[in-house]
Amino acid sequence: MSLRAYRPLTALALGAGLALSTFASGALAQDDLSGDLVFWSSFTQGPRAEYMQRMADKFTAVHPNVKISIETFSWNEFNTKWTTGLAAGQVPDISTALPNQVVEMIDVGALVPVDDVIDAIGRDRFAASALLEGQKDGNSYSLPVYSHAQVMWYRKDLLDAKGLAVPTTWAELRDAAIALNDPPNVYGLSVPLGTNDFMGTRYLNYYVQSAGSALIDASGRADLTSPAAIEGINFWVDLYKQVSPQGSINYNVLDQATLFYQGKTAFDFNSGFHIGGVAANTPDLLDDFAAAPLPRLKAGDPIYGGETANIALVAWAVGKHQAAAKAFLESLYEDADYIEFIHSVPGGMLPALSDISQQPAYQDNDLLKQFASSVAVIEQVIPLGSAIGMEDGPKIQAGIITSQAVIEQMFQDIILNGTPVETAAQAAEDKLNELFVAAGAVFTD
Question: Average pLDDT of 26-30?
């Protein structure tokens, strides 16, 4: 939903006669495919965008009666585009989608099942947890196209200069961040709390997950007042005050990442996209940073997932050319082409197909070789996590908690207005639960 205002959507009335093709291994050889397809892609620039255009050109060369028009939107732009365009039927034939967006799309009947495509590619090649995020009533509505997970990135050179070990607990991270804090040259850690993103939610989720809890409880209600949540809120507020640049109270994910790329932070949390970001912006730092699992409460606690994102492709119910749309989606997973796509962001996009990472062609990449240990950390935690709020499977609340900036507003209220943590947490929890109910969520007791 919109980052600024959540508007419950009414279900889309679907025609009774959608022509769904059953795909087999020969689906791509069909010579009767036709239709003009619109593909909304949030792979907006660089090698990923170029790859998708090449694949569209390749497909239409084989199927000359098919035309594919690719329109690119940032993730936030796409979110606004589909939510406002749905009622008027102004949505594409196929698109990229984030996990929480998929849940919202399923909830309003906007998608068609893609089990036929999954089976044609090979269902056992996909992680069951990734498929689960797009399933409802026994049907799969999304194709995972790549995965990534949140980990802790650290500056090896700065730790070595101080004789410090890589932190494994939140307490060790706090102590190391304070020890390395040397503003304005280097900040120990930036705590991003801007209301134009969900970074505050993400950071609080790390802490709560490390305690074996969640921001949405088993009943489906927001839970910001649990002991783990209150402890986590205090942790991030204290670190913001001690080691973070003041401006980070308004940072989004790009602001936060840029600071790390510039060598201005000793620690950061992100996915393997940091590898490409540093390579493009400050290649001199490539030998000086690495990834570790997210901090735990105690050193002996098990490694946990924190947050995994399974980026998806979907087919829209309004599409008039389902056979062509699904055939194109299937074509994106042919091994050689798919490896080329994954290599467009080495370490940032990890294969959604389990066998790809074992193929020599995939492994033959300089950045993947250089960051083999860091990529191994990410691969270890991917199956342990889920999208925020989807620990127990898809739910509409997950999209709301990450799109409405309620937790970010809570952090700002505490820091800027001096509101007590417990008071602000209770108010934010109540607001989220009101939004959940307005969206049609049903709580289980």
Answer: 50
